[in-house]
Amino acid sequence: MIKLLEKAASYGERKAIVSDGRSFSYHELLRSSGNVAAQLLSGQDDLKEERIAFLVPPSFEYTAVQWGIWAAGGIAVPLCVLHPLPSIKYVLEDTAARIVITHRDYEAFLRPLEEEIGIRLLLIDEIMKEASAVLPDIENTRRAMILYTSGTTSKPKGVVSTHANIESQISTLVDAWEWQKDDHILNILPLHHVHGIINVMSCALWTGACCEFLPEFDAGKVWEVISSGRLTLFMAVPTIYYKLIAFWEASGANEKHRMSEAASRLRLMVSGSAALPVPVLEKWREITGMTLLERYGMTEIGMGLSNSYRGERRPGHVGLPLPGVSIRLVDENNQPVKEGTAGEIQVKSACVFKEYWEKEEATRKAFTEDGWFITGDIAVLNEGSYKILGRDSVDIIKSGGYKISALEIEDVLRKHELIKDCAVVGIPEPEWGEIVAACIVTEENEIDFKQLSDWLKSYLPSYKVPRKYLINKELPRNVLGKVTKNTLKSRF
């Protein structure tokens, strides 16, 4: 049996999830996921790693669907509720998923794909109806989930994790951050990313704790939940902490005191998915008395490095390798570097993913001959703690917790009839870490950037749409004809 579900069975009537104003026990979660599994099997013995996609908002239903897919022997493919139809279509075609489970809110949105690519839509209330089946025995070496990451290319790759990978990712964090069954956490993170799925939801449910969902971020509502006193942990990206600080600063003196008092009683607050600006860390500590714990991870590995739960947390640093994770820094010749010297991070661990979905060559290139995963991130070991220096590519933009491929945005921009050429870069910005900026080459004297942004939103999620634009007659290039993006950044 899948270990996460096996553990859940021992927690019985303990509160597992708070969603849409209701509380659900572990027993209710397992019963609902069993219904999903039986409906999906529909007389079959085993889904045998069939890819099952689902577009469901963060909720009890989301969790039941994910667990039901696993219990039936399928591979879960969570879709992003913020993505436009072309992005959804790409994932469905790449995974060859034939079934998409959807909430009624997204039924009309997805219907055009039924005929276009031959998918079958199953509505959430139908798939969760009472049903029974003999569930297959699932080995932990089986593929369990495919999450998509842009990486360094314009085409996103499907990151395949096995049940063993997921179990390792969860248990590593449970031990390092001392999760307990009486913990209660608020989940406000996207559930097509490791951060929300593994670090928050799965760690809570592994330990018999409670995961509370807030489908959409609202600073006032988050402070309301924190102020209730029921939370023991909180995890977010730097952009969210920035917004929470802004809300606190705009509040009255009594409200500030109430919010600060409540936040100071949490045992752990974590920041991740992007570098945490030191001024944000310091302001949060001033407001709450809490030093945010920074960690480092990615879709392919879960979490690899973390500041200490009980020891020193150094601003701007991500600590040391988590239990069971081996890290090395290497130079361009793949040779280990000395302490104090910058190098590329490479990882070995049971947490590391199995493969990129049906991309054998990309998978091979992602590992060294001796089995180390090549992250593409640069770091330095400085006085006993790792510091992330950035991505070994100017084509990756880290904004609000997302890793965004500049190449993907450029490909879309070039489809516009008025754009001859373009280049996309990330510009440093306190709230978002970086914001997306585009330099456009056009024969027009001016372009309506609002109209251009609206046009882009039909192809891209809103967080990938540029916030700043420039019009130039030509792009800066080196002698080989390659755009020199660092030169371009200075023009913004």
Automatic annotation (TrEMBL):
CDD domains: MCS (cd05941). GO terms for biological process: fatty acid metabolic process. This is AMP-binding protein. Belongs to the ATP-dependent AMP-binding enzyme family. Residues 6-357 form the AMP-dependent synthetase/ligase domain. Residues 408-482 form the AMP-binding enzyme C-terminal domain. Signal peptide: none annotated. Transmembrane segments: none annotated. GO terms for molecular function: medium-chain fatty acid-CoA ligase activity. SUPFAM superfamilies: Acetyl-CoA synthetase-like (SSF56801). Gene3D superfamilies: 3.30.300.30, N-terminal domain of ligase-like. Pfam families: AMP-binding (PF00501), AMP-binding_C (PF13193).
